[in-house]
């Protein structure tokens, strides 16, 4: 059966596809008849669904976080697509690919991890290079999780492969900044950028839906990651104590301030830069996601709690850059740029007078 994605649904279409169940509620209608209210999703979006007939017996065939085969019809309700289902039943894990049901990076995970391998190969410090190569060794469980994990549940890069995409973006920033600030230890900074969120592979759950593990809620990714990295450093013969201390500090301080969850505030040059770059990349990704989100007005996002403001979605690009705005004339070409005197002579006179008055 070919999968039909939510984004491709059309009103009155007969539906036979597979979707991830993210919410399941058994209710009773005004007429006293049981019904099922569901939230379903795939990598292209989410929608509500209802089961009006045989709700109680159908409910026994699936649970929240199951990928299920659904049959029914699509309809528009209050401007949004919804499904009326006649049947829904869970399918086994070998019948689907997770990236079809959860948001995922547009980049290929194998391509991204190969890019990270190339970055690690360029590191000159043998201890840092050895640490990173060992932790992310080909075929290791940690490498597989690092390729799959989101960077967060909601705030930034909240999709499969998001952590690796975030790390690669940070590495690009780190290389650029290291070339500008000569006192930065580039290898140390890159190690911090690559490993700062490694604890998230165990803090977050992402096998069926995005959430938190028990370890994630009780301990958190900063402590999990620091302990994990430290366990690897202890196994490397002769690993310098100063380097071990500074790497641990990078992980412990990367959230920047105590109120944002950092046990320590950044106290080294590399830690300060790591904290700012991490915050920058997270916020840019969050805004870019808003810019591409059709929700809200055409030029403004819905109110964003994380930023405590609305975000303006209007864009400017001149025609020569592929946009809609007129571009300025080339240097020396004034034929398409009328002077204020010819277009609005009275305004030009006022402007000149004002400029003259300012320099009296």
TrEMBL record:
Chain intervals with Basic and acidic residues compositional bias: 341-360
- Which GO molecular function, any one, fits this protein according to its record? nucleic acid binding
Q: Where is this region: Disordered?
A: 321-360
Bias (Acidic residues) occurs at 321-334
Keywords recorded for this protein, A-Z: Hydrolase
Q: Name one Pfam family in it.
A: tRNA_anti-codon
Q: Per the record's keyword annotation, is Zinc included, yes or no?
A: no
State the PROSITE patterns in the record: HD
Supply the CDD domains for this chain: HDc, YhaM_OBF_like
SUPFAM superfamilies (alphabetical): HD-domain/PDEase-like
Q: Please name the InterPro entries in this protein's record.
A: HD/PDEase_dom, HD_domain, NA-bd_OB-fold, NA-bd_OB_tRNA, YhaM_exoribonuc/phosphodiest
What this protein is called in its record is 3'->5' exoribonuclease Bsu YhaM
Organism of derivation = hydrothermal vent metagenome
Q: Where is the organism placed in the taxonomic lineage, from the top?
A: unclassified sequences, metagenomes, ecological metagenomes
């Amino acid at each position: 059966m070919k999968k039909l994605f939510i984004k491709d649904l059309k009103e009155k279409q007969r539906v036979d596809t597979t979707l991830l169940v993210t919410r399941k509620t058994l209710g009773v209608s005004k007429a006293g008849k049981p019904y099922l209210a569901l939230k379903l999703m795939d990598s292209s979006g989410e929608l509500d669904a209802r089961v009006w007939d045989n709700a109680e017996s159908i409910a026994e065939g699936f649970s929240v976080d199951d990928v299920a085969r659904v049959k029914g019809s699509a309809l528009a309700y209050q401007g949004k697509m919804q499904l009326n289902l006649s049947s829904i039943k869970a399918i086994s894990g070998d019948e689907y690919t997770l990236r079809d049901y959860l948001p995922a990076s547009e980049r290929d995970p194998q391509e991204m991890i190969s890019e990270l391998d190339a970055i690690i190969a360029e590191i000159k410090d043998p201890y840092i290079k050895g640490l990173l190569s060992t932790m992310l060794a080909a075929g290791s469980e940690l490498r597989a999780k690092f390729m799959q994990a989101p960077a967060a549940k909601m705030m930034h890069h909240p999709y499969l492969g998001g952590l690796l995409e975030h790390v690669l973006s940070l590495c690009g920033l780190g290389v650029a900044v290291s070339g500008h600030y000569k006192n930065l230890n580039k290898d140390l900074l890159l190690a911090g950028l690559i490993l700062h969120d490694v604890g998230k592979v165990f803090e977050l759950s992402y096998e069926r839906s995005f959430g938190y593990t028990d370890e994630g809620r009780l301990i958190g990714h900063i402590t999990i990651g620091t302990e994990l990295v430290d366990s690897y450093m202890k196994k490397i013969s002769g690993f310098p104590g100063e380097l071990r201390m500074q790497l641990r500090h990078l992980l412990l301080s990367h959230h920047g301030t105590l109120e944002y969850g950092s046990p320590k505030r950044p106290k080294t040059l590399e830690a300060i830069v790591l904290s700012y770059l991490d915050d920058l990349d997270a916020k840019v990704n969050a805004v870019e996601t808003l810019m591409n989100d059709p929700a809200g007005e055409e030029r403004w996002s819905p109110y964003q709690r994380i930023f405590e403001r609305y975000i303006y979605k209007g864009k400017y690009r001149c025609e020569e850059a592929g946009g809609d705005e007129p571009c300025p004339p080339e240097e020396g070409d004034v034929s398409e740029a009328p002077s204020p005197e010819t277009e609005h002579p009275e305004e030009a006179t006022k402007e000149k007078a004002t400029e003259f008055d300012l320099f009296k």
